[in-house]
Each structure stands twice: as structure tokens, then as C-alpha cells.
Write a structure and sequence with these properties.
Elements lengths: L8 E3 L25 H25 L7 E3 L5 E5 L4 E5 L5 E4 L4 E4 L5 E5 L4 E5 L11 E8 L2 E8 L2 E4 L4 E5 L7 E5 L7 E6 L13 E10 L4 E8 L7 E7 L2 E8 L3 E5 L6 E10 L2 E10 L3 E9 L14 H15 L4 H8 L3 E10 L2 E9 L7 H13 L6 E10 L14 E6 L2 E6 L3 E3 L9 E3 L2 H4 L8 E6 L2 E6 L3 E3 L9 E3 L2 H4 L8 E6 L2 E6 L18 H7 L20 E10 L14 H22 L5 E9 L2 E10 L6 H13 L6 E7 L2 H4 L7 E4 L5 H35 L19
Antiparallel strand pairs: 1-2, 2-19, 3-4, 4-7, 5-6, 7-8, 9-10, 11-12, 12-14, 13-14, 15-16, 16-19, 17-18, 17-20, 20-21, 22-24, 22-25, 23-24, 26-27, 28-29, 30-31, 32-33, 34-35, 36-38, 36-39, 37-38, 39-40
Helix pairs in contact: 8-9
């Protein structure tokens, strides 16, 4: 970043009487120190060309003596005009070119350079040591635009440039440039590089992005600003333009991210445009700024003038002529002090409208806040001037001068997110609650919304969603929570336990875990999750899978744990219904205590008892799971493939073992792997009741069958007889005397 010593102001001037003396309009600067003829000629031509171009541009930039002035940094270059002379003065930084056998050096002395113009002649005079060009780690840049002269300093290079061309003197070579090099009889060298544009080469170019323009100071005649950017590159040059309405007041370039505009008019809305071009992209930011003032609102009626239709058109000649005469007449009777303020632009008379009746004039009296003129003094002065007018017959009864309410729409530059506060004939602004004032030295002009949700400066519950709104925020309870204070939404939210209410999507074979505002699911231990992207919502039931699979030993598709060496043994798929046992949901979870207890009890009872009954220690079982109804145990029974135990013996032995657990239970064999090797004639499915088969049961069944048969035969005989009887009588209706209704069911 350059220091303030090399920064100066761009100004607007007027009244350059005639071209300057000298072959190119200026006197040539003195170049001192030993140097070669090539250096002399090159540097002299370069300075002549650049300074001549700068002065030509200054000539076209001369304007009214009270025009705007721009400053960048701390040092100032001022061009002033008087009836006798026009003087260009440069404060304590000047430039001298010196040359040694090793290098060409630009040095600075506290001398000044003065451009003086008289009605007879205009000369450029330089002191003992003047314009200096240096190839040191700092850069001095003179930039001329049609309305601006800017002197800046940046590190790395020394550059003298105009709007169409950049001339650079550096101590290192640059790629792709036109180079004039003088090589003295030493190892050192100096390089003069001329390029059309100055480019920065980066591996990955990130363009500058503007964040905001900050207001440092706003007065009646001055605006001071800065700006923030993201991704700034070194040596980035910003173009700053000041507009009044749609008229461009000035344009200049700077590497500093700040600018000061002086000699402005009070109570005028200016527009500042800052642009920069990086990475072949141009970024622009615009800010409207209104200078402050004390404003009086005046209205008067002129009786000796006739209203013309052209007075409605502010661009018409009659309107302009009337306004000029009215203001001239009004000023003619003011004190000289007020007239001087008017001439310097610190007092303005602004005609707002001319309306019929005879002629009514509405106008504002605008005073700079920097001037020690009280409002009462100004009111009395203008009222007295109107009263003493000889050209205009003023109707004093219809003449008023009051403090203007600048808080009316369009009369101030307060932010839309701020409140305008009237202060007699002026105003101030204050950002509304919920907005941050980014330029507190000029309050209420730039108000940015505060995101209370990010700063956590809100009253939302931890179980609510915070939504930022302009200047405020709103809250909404999360799904899965209850808003217990709907009058203040989202401020008091309580969690709903979806696992308790059942309002969840977890599988019956999963663990439901309540979380704040939600829930989570996880399949039971040993249960396969068929949809892992939505954990615990589709857990595969090992019992259903086991019952329907064709491969009895293919349990890996049904459960995480598998039975080893199943294919090398004789396996039986079996079901045992324990009617005396109550089913609970815990029996679905292999990790639950109820599941482990029933599994251990079933295994520790059935396995040793069956081994004893079969006299075969190879018998073992593997429990797959439990189902409701009362409790259905699904398990695999195993025997060595070399075992001589028959299937019927196995079934009887298992039935006898399970009987010790539940006398009302039943057992089914629903499949086997090597059934033929055990009993070739045994059907795949066998059933046995644990109740002992005996002859009494068989007799009861036979007697019941005989009774049912006799009853059916008797009923058939009665029906046939009735049909035969009715056929003869040709009547088929049945009444209460029919024999069928006389049959006693007790006789059956």
C-alpha cells in the first residue's frame, strides 16, 4: 500500500488564459548528474511527452473556481486561479532524475514546482532540483484524465502514465515489453519499459468483489469515503467518478481504497461510482450521498407579475429568465457577507416551483452548516430583502420563511431501514432496531440487517428453527416437538417421544431411540437391515425368512449369525408351540434379557434330554427366533450324517424333551436336508401331540362319528317322507303341524 506522501488531489479549475510558453507548452526540467547521451535524449523526450499531455488535459479540465476537488490520501496538489495568475503548486514531494554508471535514480527533494500564469504570459518555472524519476522499490505514477490529475505511489516499480499510455522505469526486466536499455561498463543495468496496459500475472486470478462503500465524513462541502473489497490484488487501480444528477463532476484513479471530495454544494445528492477491472472482469459499486445543510422553506406571492404557461416548464427561456431576475433581485439587498457565501456556493437559492395566483414562488434557502449564520438571521435578512424589493410587488401577508422538514420523502438520504429525525432546519438518521450501522460517523445512512439467527441474539427455543427477517427474526418449532406457547411461536418447544407414541417409522425388529425433535432406528443385534440408507426401517424377520427359504442351511440371508457345518450334517427345520408361555415384544430382540432367558432355558432343556433319549450326543439345536402365538420357537435340529437315529425316533425324543417345558405344546418338522438317509418313507412334515395317545381317545372319536351318522340318516328319511306326502296333496308349504317340528333334539 503506498504511503500518503505520494498521494495528491484531483481538482477542477477554470480560466486558463492562453497556452504555456516553450516549444511544447512547458519549460523543460533540468536533468542533473552524469549520464549518457542516450539516457539524456530518452528521458527528456519521455518527460516532455508526458508533461505536455498532462497540461493539455488540464487545460480541458478548467472549470468554475468553486468546482469540486478530489483528494486521495494525505498530500494535496492544488491548482488555484486569481484574476492575475494561475498557479500549480506541488507540496513537499518533487522529482529529480539522476544517473550513475550503475543505475538511473529518482530522488525527492523538498523543493516545489510552480506553474504561474499572468494576463501577458504563462510560464513553468522549476527550482534547483525538480522533476525526479527513480527506479527504487517505490513507484511514482502521474495519471491524467480529461478532468483529473492524480499522483500516486506504489511498491515495486516507478510509473509515469497518461490515460492512453503507461510508461514504466524499472530495475528488473518485464516480459513481452518494448525495452530501451543503456548498458554502462558494469554488471548493473536500467530498463525503461513501455506497455499499453499494466497486467498482473497470477496462477489463479481471483477478481475483486466490492463489499460496501463506507461513509467517513459528510459535510456541506465535503464527502469522505472508503470501500471494502474481497480478493484484492496488489496494485489494483480503482476508477472513482462523482456525479451530480446525471452530470459527471470528476473522474480519477487511485490505488488507495478511499477518496475525499471537496468544494461541493450543500444539500445536493451526489452519486459516487467506484469500479475496478481485474481478471478481465469489471466490478462496480454505487452509493448516493447527500451533503448536509440548514434549509429554510420560503413561499411568496408577487402581485405585479402575470403567470405565464411557460413557467411550468423549467427548461423554457421565460422560466429561466424569471428565476434569474428573482434571485438577482433577492441578493441585491442582502448583506455582503451573505452575497459572498452565495458566490462561494455556501449559500444557495433553489426555486422549486412557480404557480399561478398572481405569481407564487416556492423556493429553498440552503445554508452550509460550516458557516456561522443563524437561522433567525437568515430569515430576517431574506424577509427584509423581499419587503424592500422595487421590481417585485411582494404580498407580505402571503410570504412565509420557515424551517424545512427535511424528513419528508425525497428530502434526505436516510436508509430505508432507518428513521429520520428532524433537527429544526436539518436532520439526522438512526438505524432501526435489528439493523447495524456500518458508518456510525454518518449515522443512519448505511443500515445492514443483523442476522439474529447467526448471532444467536434471539429468543427461539433450542428445539425451534430460527428464520432471519429484515430487522427481526421468527421462530418455528421443529417437527417432532410441541409448541407450548403458540402466542409466541417457537419460543417454548417440548420434545415429542415418537418412540413412546408410536409415531415413528422404525421396524418392529429395531430399537427406536428418541432424539430432540426426532428419533432414530437401529435393527436388533443379529438382525439384517434390508435398507441401510434408512437405518432400522426395514429389518428382515429371520423367522419369516427361515420358514420360506428353500435352503435350510442358507441362514446367512436371514440372520447375521450362521450355523457352522450345517451342510455336513442332517438338519431338521422345526417349530415348537409353547402354549403355556406368554409372548412379549422383547422376544423379538435377540439382545434382550427375555430372549436370552427363554433361549437358554429351551436349549438347556431340549438338547441334553433329547441326547439321552436318543443315546446320541451329536444332537444339537440352533434357535432362529420366536413368534407370537402363544410362543412359537423356530429352530434347527442337527444330527451327524452318520447317525442311525430314525426320524420318528428323533421326533418322539424331541417331543418328550419339550414336554418337560410345556405339556400343552406341539412340535412340527417343516423341512430337512437329508431326510431320505434317516427314514426313506417319512413324509417331509410330521406332527405329534404331547398328550399320550390311548384307546379311550379312539373310542370317543368312534362314538361321536356314529351319533352324527344316525342323525343325518334320520333327517334324510323325514325329508323324503314329507316331500312324498306333499306331492300327493299338491301342497308344499310347511306349517306348525309338520312332523319335522315335532322331532325332539333330545332324542337325537
Amino acid at each position: 500500500m503506498p504511503d500518503d506522501r505520494h498521494q495528491t488531489e484531483a481538482i477542477r479549475v477554470t480560466n486558463l488564459p492562453r497556452p504555456l510558453n516553450g516549444a511544447n507548452g512547458i519549460d523543460k526540467p533540468t536533468i542533473s548528474g552524469p549520464r549518457s547521451p542516450v539516457q539524456n535524449r530518452a528521458v527528456t523526450d519521455l518527460l516532455n511527452k508526458s508533461l505536455n499531455r498532462a497540461l493539455q488535459l488540464l487545460t480541458s479540465a478548467f472549470r468554475a473556481s468553486n468546482g469540486p476537488l478530489a483528494q486521495i490520501g494525505g498530500e494535496t496538489t492544488t491548482l488555484t486561479s486569481t484574476p492575475e495568475t494561475t498557479t500549480l503548486t506541488s507540496t513537499p514531494e518533487t522529482t529529480t532524475l539522476t544517473s550513475t554508471p550503475e543505475t538511473t535514480t529518482l530522488t525527492s527533494t523538498p523543493e516545489s514546482t510552480t506553474l504561474t500564469s499572468t494576463p501577458e504570459t504563462t510560464t513553468l518555472s522549476t527550482t534547483t532540483e525538480t522533476t525526479t524519476l527513480t527506479s527504487t522499490p517505490e513507484t511514482t505514477t502521474l495519471t491524467s484524465t480529461p478532468e483529473t490529475t492524480t499522483l500516486t505511489s506504489t511498491p515495486e516499480t516507478t510509473t509515469l502514465s497518461t490515460t492512453t499510455e503507461t510508461t514504466t522505469l524499472t530495475s528488473t526486466p518485464a516480459p513481452e515489453t518494448t525495452t530501451l536499455t543503456t548498458m554502462p561498463p558494469t554488471t548493473a543495468s536500467s530498463t525503461i519499459t513501455t506497455t499499453k496496459t499494466t497486467a498482473t500475472s497470477l496462477a489463479a486470478c481471483v477478481p475483486i468483489r466490492f463489499v460496501r462503500i463506507n461513509l467517513i465524513r459528510v459535510r456541506s462541502e465535503e464527502i469522505s469515503i472508503s470501500w471494502n473489497v474481497n480478493g484484492e490484488l496488489s496494485l489494483s487501480r480503482y476508477e472513482v467518478t462523482l456525479f451530480r444528477a446525471n452530470v459527471k463532476e470528476m473522474t480519477f484513479t487511485t490505488v488507495a481504497k478511499k477518496a475525499v471530495f471537496r468544494h461541493l454544494l450543500p444539500d445536493v445528492e451526489y452519486r459516487v461510482v467506484v469500479s475496478v477491472k481485474t481478471c478481465k472482469q469489471e466490478q462496480t459499486i454505487v452509493r448516493k450521498i447527500r451533503t448536509i445543510a440548514k434549509v429554510l422553506k420560503a413561499r411568496t406571492r408577487i402581485r405585479n407579475k402575470t403567470f405565464l404557461p411557460d413557467f411550468r416548464d423549467k427548461d423554457s427561456l421565460p422560466y429561466k429568465t424569471f428565476v434569474e431576475n428573482f434571485i438577482k433581485d433577492l441578493l441585491s439587498r442582502l448583506a455582503q457577507r451573505l452575497i459572498n457565501l452565495f458566490n462561494n456556493g455556501r449559500l444557495r437559492i433553489v426555486i422549486n416551483s412557480i404557480t399561478p395566483g398572481s405569481v407564487r414562488v416556492d423556493f429553498d434557502i440552503v445554508l452550509s452548516t460550516a458557516e456561522n449564520v443563524t437561522l433567525s438571521e437568515a430569515k430576517e435578512a431574506f424577509a427584509d430583502s423581499l419587503n424592500k424589493s422595487e421590481e417585485f410587488d411582494i404580498d407580505l401577508e402571503n410570504t412565509t420563511i420557515t424551517d424545512k422538514d427535511s424528513c419528508q420523502p425525497g428530502q434526505n438520504d436516510c436508509s430505508v431501514n432507518a428513521t429520520c429525525i428532524r433537527l429544526n432546519a436539518t436532520y439526522t438518521c438512526k438505524c432501526n432496531d435489528g439493523f447495524n450501522d456500518t458508518s456510525p460517523s454518518v449515522p443512519g445512512r448505511i443500515c445492514e440487517d443483523i442476522d439474529e439467527c447467526q448471532t444467536r441474539n434471539n429468543t427461539c427455543s433450542d428445539l425451534a428453527v430460527c428464520m432471519n427477517t429484515p430487522g427481526s427474526f421468527s421462530c418455528r418449532c421443529l417437527e417432532g416437538t410441541t409448541d407450548v406457547n403458540p402466542g409466541k411461536p417457537g419460543t417454548q418447544c417440548t420434545d415429542i417421544d415418537e418412540c413412546q407414541t408410536g409415531n415413528n417409522t422404525c421396524s418392529d425388529l429395531s430399537v427406536c431411540t428418541n432424539t430432540l425433535g426426532a428419533f432414530s432406528c437401529r435393527c436388533f443385534q443379529g438382525i439384517i437391515d434390508a435398507k441401510p440408507e434408512k437405518p432400522g426401517t426395514q429389518c428382515r424377520d429371520p423367522v419369516t425368512c427361515f420358514s420360506n427359504t428353500g435352503n435350510i442351511c442358507g441362514l446367512s440371508d436371514c440372520m447375521i449369525s450362521t450355523v457352522s457345518s450345517c451342510n455336513s450334517k442332517t438338519a431338521f427345520r422345526m417349530e415348537a408351540t409353547l402354549r403355556s408361555t406368554q409372548f412379549s415384544s422383547d422376544l423379538k430382540n435377540p439382545a434382550s434379557e427375555a430372549y436370552r432367558n427363554l433361549s437358554d432355558n429351551f436349549r438347556n432343556t431340549v438338547v441334553p434330554t433329547t441326547q439321552t433319549n436318543l443315546n446320541d450326543n451329536s444332537f444339537n439345536i440352533s434357535i432362529v427366533g420366536f413368534q407370537n402365538g402363544s410362543v412359537v420357537v423356530h429352530f434347527l435340529a442337527f444330527l451327524n450324517s452318520t447317525s442311525n437315529v430314525s426320524s420318528s425316533s428323533l421326533l418322539k425324543a424331541v417331543v418328550a424333551a419339550i414336554k418337560t417345558l410345556d405339556r400343552n405344546s406341539s412340535v412340527f418338522v417343516t423341512g430337512t436336508t437329508q431326510l431320505a438317509t434317516i427314514h426313506p418313507q417319512t413324509a417331509p412334515t410330521m406332527q405329534s401331540n404331547l398328550v399320550t395317545e390311548n384307546s379311550g381317545w379312539r373310542v370317543a372319536v368312534i362314538v361321536l362319528g356314529v351319533i352324527i351318522g344316525v342323525t343325518l340318516l334320520t333327517t334324510l328319511v323325514v325329508i323324503v317322507a314329507m316331500i312324498h306326502t306333499k306331492k300327493k296333496s299338491r301342497k308344499y308349504s310347511i306349517d306348525t303341524s309338520d312332523i319335522v317340528k315335532q322331532i325332539s333334539y333330545s332324542n337325537l
